[in-house]
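// run 5 | inverse folding | seed 20
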């Protein structure tokens, strides 16, 4: 979402992480029911000199931007928003509960590194785009359609549920030499006292060779 005001009025729960070394916990829900919103973030200062001095000697093949995500086993067929960062440094989340979003500061699906797609699990109206994500089994097909008409095909390798307080930032956002895909939403029990879900569901997928 693009503003603090919107985050205060959003109605589902998603916990995300920055590309820095700490997790950003973003949650929505109403006090007493999955509704009102709440946001918490811990974003340390980035190591700017190290980042600015780094120069990769490896060339990366350019691929088109992702525009659609399809996961037949989870009944997902959604356009992909482009997500950046909010004013406070946290990663934006999709403004539409029925639409997933791709973190555009990371790799594109098919490029080396983890391409990350975020989506809501539910809203006040009911199930959202990633409602069935937690049920994905290893081997499930994930398809990412790109702007040039090509499709990047992935297979799920694992689906994990983790506490928000222990979000595995390095595993989800850390650089890798091989292409991969990460799908992130909320899961677990809903904490009515805090108005947020306690866990995250993270799906790991690798390209079909």
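// decoded
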């Amino acid at each position: 979402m693009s503003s603090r005001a919107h985050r205060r009025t959003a109605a589902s729960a998603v916990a995300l992480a920055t590309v820095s070394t700490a997790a950003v916990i973003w949650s929505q829900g109403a006090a007493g029911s999955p509704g009102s919103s709440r946001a918490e973030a811990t974003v340390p200062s980035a190591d700017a000199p190290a980042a600015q001095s780094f120069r990769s000697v490896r060339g990366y093949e350019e691929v088109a931007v992702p525009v659609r995500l399809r996961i037949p086993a989870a009944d997902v067929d959604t356009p992909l928003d482009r997500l950046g960062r909010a004013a406070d440094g946290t990663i934006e989340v999709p403004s539409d509960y029925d639409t997933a979003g791709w973190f555009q500061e990371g790799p594109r699906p098919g490029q080396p590194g983890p391409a990350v797609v975020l989506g809501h699990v539910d809203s006040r109206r009911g199930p959202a785009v990633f409602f069935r994500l937690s049920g994905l089994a290893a081997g499930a097909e994930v398809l990412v359609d790109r702007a040039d008409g090509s499709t990047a095909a992935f297979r799920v390798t694992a689906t994990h549920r983790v506490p928000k307080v222990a979000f595995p930032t390095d595993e989800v956002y850390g650089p890798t030499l091989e292409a991969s895909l990460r799908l992130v939403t909320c899961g677990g029990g809903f904490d009515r006292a805090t108005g947020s879900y306690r866990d995250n569901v993270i799906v790991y997928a690798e390209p079909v060779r």
